[in-house]
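Page 37, continued from 36.
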């Protein structure tokens, strides 16, 4: 890292690794700052390898398959990220290099549970010249624990091989920062300073993914207060389950969204079905989506064989009911907490009906609140958001003293 006095001006290249679910993702992000107020980010590379098609036949993510696939994919994804990030096609030494016996011993310890990854690592990484990277950010939770462990072990191995420090990052923190990632290059106001408090905080963030549905109030970066969450299924999970009921492939969110968008075009031919918007009038910021999914199931059982129009009607009614409660509670929370900015993040943030409805309700009811949403490239799981959250985690906590102590934690909370 090249920093002048008191971090007034600095640059830092962060390599980030994300394996919490069924995407193997690695990014390289250049972070720089001219002063303490603003930090600039430039995404040099962003590689995401999705396993969704492999999991499709199980109708959801199959943890041991995800673990195996991450193990097979991490080295090729790393090579691609390095090639993209540093615009060099030949970043490898031409003559084979070898690790010392001591390094090999350490690598065998951290990658012992991933024999295929260990084998690839020992074969390929010695030939890669140490890249211009100052830190490695690694998602250590929440997510599928076996999948998280592969990424954490790989990060430790790279830290050993290249002598680069590690930053453990909370995946949900990554989704929060994704809302500020509108382009390849962007700027975020730094920690507590006058302009940041005036411009940003409090932020109210709605996080909607396959594993989470949460409303979070943010007083300063990494100062999170969770004010509501789902009591059962996450909203993305409900989209996936309803898609399955309608005979659509995994992941179901984009499929439901596509079907629902045909509703208007059908005009008078499609009827408006009523489905309950669960907990819409409850006196809190919690959610529940399991009852809504069951209501769809009963409706489908009653209807028997479904026509294409009926599928459109059901997808539309389900999506409306799910979105209504998300929008209502986010607007209420933004009002109650006086949000300067309201944000959306997570896989379901790709849903255009949700993006549009939340934007229009906020504009209508809270014209002083700015609404920020991620570029569609960064709604789903990616490693660029982990690099950004990684910078702020480092700025607050520094590097971990002993990288080997980092543990994956499937239930890690914000
Ligand atoms: O954040 P993400 O990629 O992974 C997790 O951390 O869970 O979110 C994946 C979820 C899946 O449930 C998927 O069906 C949902 O996001 N999703 C969508 C859309 N695109 C992805 N849900 C609704 N509408 C979409 N367009
Ligand atoms: Zn996610």
């Amino acid at each position: 890292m090249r920093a002048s006095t008191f971090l007034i001006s600095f640059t830092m290249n962060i390599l980030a690794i994300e394996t919490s679910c069924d995407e193997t993702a690695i990014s390289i992000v250049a972070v720089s700052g001219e002063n303490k107020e603003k930090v600039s980010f430039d995404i040099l590379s962003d590689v995401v390898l999705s396993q969704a098609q492999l999991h499709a036949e199980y109708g959801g993510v199959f943890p041991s398959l995800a673990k195996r696939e991450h193990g097979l994919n991490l080295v090729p994804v790393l090579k691609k990220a390095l090639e993209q990030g540093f615009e060099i096609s030949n970043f490898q030494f031409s003559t084979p290099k070898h690790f010392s016996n001591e390094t090999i011993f350490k690598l065998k310890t951290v990658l012992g549970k991933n024999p295929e990854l260990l084998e690839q690592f020992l074969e390929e990484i010695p030939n890669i010249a140490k890249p211009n990277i100052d830190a490695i950010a690694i998602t250590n939770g929440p997510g599928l624990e076996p999948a998280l462990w592969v990424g954490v072990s790989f990060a430790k191995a790279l830290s050993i091989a290249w002598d680069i420090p590690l930053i453990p990052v909370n995946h949900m923190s990554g989704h929060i920062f994704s809302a500020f990632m509108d382009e390849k290059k962007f700027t975020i106001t730094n920690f507590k300073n006058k302009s940041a408090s005036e411009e940003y905080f409090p932020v109210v963030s709605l996080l909607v993914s396959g594993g989470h549905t949460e409303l979070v109030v943010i007083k300063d970066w990494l100062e999170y207060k969770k004010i509501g969450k789902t009591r059962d299924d996450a909203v993305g999970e409900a989209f996936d389950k309803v898609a399955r009921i309608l005979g659509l492939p995994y992941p179901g969110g984009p499929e439901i969204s596509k079907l629902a968008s045909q509703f208007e075009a059908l005009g008078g031919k499609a009827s408006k079905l009523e489905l309950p918007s669960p907990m819409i009038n409850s006196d809190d910021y919690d959610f529940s989506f399991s009852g809504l999914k069951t209501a769809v199931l009963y409706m489908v059982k009653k209807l028997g064989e479904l026509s294409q129009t009926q599928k459109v009607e059901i997808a539309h009614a389900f999506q409306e009911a799910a979105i209504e409660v998300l929008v209502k509670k986010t607007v209420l929370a933004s009002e109650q907490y006086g949000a300067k900015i309201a944000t959306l993040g997570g896989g379901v943030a790709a849903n255009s009906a949700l993006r549009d409805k939340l934007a229009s309700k906020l504009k209508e009811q809270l014209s002083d609140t700015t609404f920020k949403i991620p570029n569609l490239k960064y709604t789903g799981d990616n490693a660029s958001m982990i690099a950004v959250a990684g910078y702020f985690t480092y700025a607050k906590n520094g590097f971990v003293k002993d990288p080997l102590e980092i543990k994956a934690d499937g239930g890690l909370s914000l």
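The longest strand covers residues 38-50. Flag for discussion at group meeting. The chain has a mean pLDDT of 93.
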